[in-house]
Amino acid sequence: KADAGKAEAGKPESGKAASAQPTLRRALDDDMLERLEELLIASDMGVDTALRVTANMAEGRMGQRLSTGEIKTLLAREVTRIMEPVARPMPLYPKKPQVVLVVGVNGSGKTTTIGKLASQFRAAGKSVIIAAGDTFRAAAVEQLEVWGQRAGVPVLKAGAGTDPASLVFDAMTRAEAEGVDLLMIDTAGRLQNRADLMEELSKIVRVIRKKDPSAPHNTLLVLDATTGQNALSQVETFRKLADVSGLVMTKLDGTAKGGVLVALADKFGLPIHAIGVGEQIDDLSPFDPEDFARALTG
Ligand code: GDP
């Protein structure tokens, strides 16, 4: 929560009021609504959500003379209303180990996010183990080890091509034996062969459940905000492959397309646990709906 000030959605906040000039006001009409819709669609909010946001904002206000600042405030209020229910940190349960399964397509930021989360948990005084469940990508395992070192957390790995489920079994055994607070499990994100991936993920989940029927306690889907509307189809796909319980949106620092979060919230209502705002270890912030809405509509 202390990091809330870092939350940003690609655009710098433009909090300055146009103090010296007389405020320009325009009547809210269909023409203006259409332009607002286009702006929201350009932020990757998607047509349906953009139409709904502008319609809600205009309700009872058609013909009113509004300044740009007032319009932004009204739009931000509508966006906040959609985002508030999904802005929830990842829930933690008293159980040990807490099993956090992390899924998402390759390149979405899974490894980075696991490193950042591990570091935050460590800072909160929790013990963490990371399992490098994408046993096929040697580079992914190496990256994870680098992040493990940064976060001061051990990374369990297996030889290339080892069955990820057997690595996860070993990781569960070790986490239980050592009384570790959290076990974070990285997974493969090859969507080229969905049947294989589904089999792999469901086998991992079966092994976890055998050890602890209440686990995995969280299944995080990591999404790259710069992929825009593509994120919607990734949610659909991964919900079929795994029991996704929450989202982490990465790369919000590098995009003006953060509107896709609104589309996601509107369509799926899955909690957004955190947002990635850079490549460094501290660049993971809680999702703040008001900051986000102001940045998006600013
Ligand atoms: P994975 O294949 O899903 O494990 O993805 P990685 O964690 O390796 O991330 C892919 C790339 O995205 C790397 O270059 C990361 O540094 C970068 N990345 C991840 N999260 C963020 C973020 O929040 N902001 C920025 N700017 N880059 C990020």
In short:
Residues 5-83 form the Signal recognition particle SRP54 helical bundle domain. The chain is built from 10 helices and 10 strands.
Tell me what the structure shows:
With 298 residues, the chain is an alpha/beta fold. Helices cover 44% and strands 14% of the residues. The protein contains ten helices and ten strands. It has helices at residues 30-42, 47-58, 68-83, 110-123, 138-151, 164-178, 194-211, 230-241, 260-268, 289-297, and strands at residues 25-27, 65-67, 98-103, 128-132, 155-156, 182-186, 218-224, 246-250, 272-276, 284-285. The chain has an eight-stranded mixed β-sheet, sandwiched between helices. It has a two-stranded antiparallel ribbon with strand order 1-2. Helix 5 (138-151) links the parallel strand 4 (128-132) and strand 5. Helix 1 runs antiparallel to helix 2 (47-58). The model is unreliable at 1-15 (pLDDT under 50). Guanosine-5'-diphosphate binds next to helix 4 and helix 5. Guanosine-5'-diphosphate binds at residues 104, 106-112, 140, 143, 189, 250-251, 253-254, 276-279, 283.
Report, as a whole number of angstroms, the end-to-end distance.
23 Å
Mean pLDDT: 91
List of distinct ligands in this structure: guanosine-5'-diphosphate
Low-confidence stretches: 1-15
Radius of gyration: 21 Å
| Overall 3D shape | elongated
Oligomeric state of the chains in view: single chain
Q: Could you say which structural class the secondary elements and strand pairing correspond to?
A: alpha/beta
Beta content comes to: 5-15%
Number of strands: 10
Summarize the helix and strand pattern as letters. EHHEHEHEHEHEHEHEHEEH
Number of helices: 10
Strand order of the largest sheet: 5-4-6-3-7-8-9-10
Biggest beta sheet summary: 8 strands, mixed
Helix content: 40-55%
